[in-house]
Amino acid sequence: MRHASPRPIHGAGLGLRRALLGPLQDTFSSESAAPIDFFEIAPENWIGVGGQFGRTLRALTERHPFVCHGLSLSLGGRDPLDETLLAKIRRLLDTHGIAIYSEHLSYCADEGHLYDLMPIPFTDEAVHHAARRIRQAQEILGQRIAVENVSYYAAPGQAMREIDFVNAVVAEADCDLLLDVNNIYVNSINHRYDAGAFLDALPGDRVAYIHVAGHYDEAPDLKVDTHGAPVIDPVWQLLERAYARFGVRPTLIERDFNFPPLAELVGEVAHARGLQRAHEMPDVRSA
Questions:
Q1: Which among 34, 85, 86 is positioned nearest to 60, based on CA atoms?
Q2: Hey, CA dihedral for 116, 75, 86, 61, is it positive or negative?
Q3: Distance, CA of 56 to CA of 39 (rounded, Å)
Q4: Using the 8-state DSSP alphabet, how is residue 232 labeled?
Q5: pLDDT in tens, the chain (287 residues)
Q6: Which of 134, 109, 102, 136 is CA-nearest to residue 249?
Q7: DSSP label at 108?
Q8: How many CB atoms lie within 10 A of CB 213?
Q9: How far is CA 3 from CA 94, 97, 204, in A?
Q10: Cβ-count burial of 31 within 10 angstroms (0-12 exposed, 13-18 middle, 19+ buried)?
């Protein structure tokens, strides 16, 4: 049963990693707590966790809104959908009053976990397959989920454009969208398309929240989505375009390794919040 009603998210948030628990607890115990509006966790990393980590998570979810972002459901895979995992995720959402669950529009298992997010072929058959599995997941969870547009480095069997594939899946599955702005930027460089045009073509009314992150420059024409570096200016600019196009949406900073001091991550959260405020303000020129 839920310990509280699901809490809506707003503003700018941060991905919660165990390496950040100590610094976060220190700042929350001080008089000037870090201004973070919500947190995101991977449910697979917290299901069944007890002891000190479990108590820490419970204390945080009682004080702050959270979202869950899955890593291993393999929505585009051929293996049977993991209904046991979905049942555990539903209990986690219920226990901690978490309203939003998202997953990657990819696959990560083939008779066993591949430990990577693999691209789904951009075909009509794959649209129907992924949409069917998303609908099944939503039925088990008893709620809509948000699927993330993912980074990819090859497009095997491609028969349609990435934007058409993403839009078709979201429409057929009747699900929400986790808009990853950094993934659009990375893919636009690697696959040579216009990032702004891609963004503009997405269904803005389906955007549940937004991801921004850093990446690695392997070469001028090859970017690797690592979540291990600061967000760069072109990605911030694409985020501003998303706000201008769709309105301000909750936005999360992702960082998975190479953690800087917490103050730097909080600075990125604050930067996202500043962009949100700028786009929420009425245009004084029209007054």
A1: 34
A2: positive
A3: 13
A4: P
A5: 345 578 899 999 999 998 898 888 777 665 555 689 999 999 999 999 989 889 999 999 999 999 999 998 999 888 999 999 999 999 999 999 999 999 999 976 455 564 557 788 999 999 999 999 999 999 999 999 999 999 998 888 899 999 999 999 999 999 999 999 999 999 999 999 999 999 999 999 999 999 999 998 888 898 888 889 999 999 999 999 999 999 999 999 999 999 999 999 999 999 999 999 999 876 533 33
A6: 102
A7: E
A8: 27
A9: 7, 6, 32
A10: exposed
Pairwise CA distance, residues 150 & 172, whole Å:
18
Which residues touch 213 (CB under 8 Å, ≥6 apart)?
A: 180, 182, 225, 227, 231, 235, 253, 254, 255
The count of other CB atoms within 10 Å of the CB of residue 83 is: 11
13 with 273: CB under 8 angstroms? no
pTM recorded for the entire structure: 0.93
d(CA 287, CA 282): 8
- Distance, in Å, from the CA atom of 169 to the CA atom of 146, rounded to the nearest integer, reads 11
End-to-end CA distance of the chain: 50
Q: How far apart are CA 101 and CA 6, in angstroms?
A: 12
> Which element (helix H / strand E) includes 95?
helix 83-96
CA 39 – CA 213 distance, rounded (Å) = 15
For 286, how many CA atoms within 13 A lie in the half-sphere containing its CB?
3
CB 146 within 8 A of CB 100: yes
CATH class of 12-280: alpha beta
Domain boundaries, the chain: 12-280
